[in-house]
Structure formats: C-alpha cells, structure tokens
Amino acid sequence: MLRLTVSPEEYLMINDNIKIVFLGGSKNNLRIMVDAPREVSIVRSAAIENSVSDPEERARLPKFYAVPETPKKYRKPKGK
Fold it and tell me: Is 0.85 surpassed by the pTM of this model?
C-alpha cells in the first residue's frame, strides 16, 4: 500500500490510462476526480459493503482506516 501527502491539483497516474486528481477537501473529506476508460470499473467501498448481505463475507472485505495521529518518528520538529 502507498500512503502519500498531496496538494490540491496534484495527480497520480496508474499505468498510462488512469489519472486520479486530488481536488482538495476539509479535515474529514477529500475530493478526487478519477479519469479512466469506460471499461475500468470504479466502485465506492460503501457500495460494495452494502451489496454484501452475508456477515461472514462482509467481515472478509478489506478495511482501511485513517491513522488518528501520525507516529512521533514521522512528525517534523516544530520551530525548525
């Protein structure tokens, strides 16, 4: 998994045909734009989770959570 810090209007390229543009956001929300060919399926995690009715199958779905606080070793020193 790749974790990045990006600025608004920066983008990621996946192969030669998928572009993810970061449009900005607020503390709890992020807006992105995905430019991909029609044959590429793009589905929100909530839609996938809601389509699975079996609790055992739902438990096997991947979960990704935001880290509430950055570990100290990754923080920049204040005032420098």
Answer: no
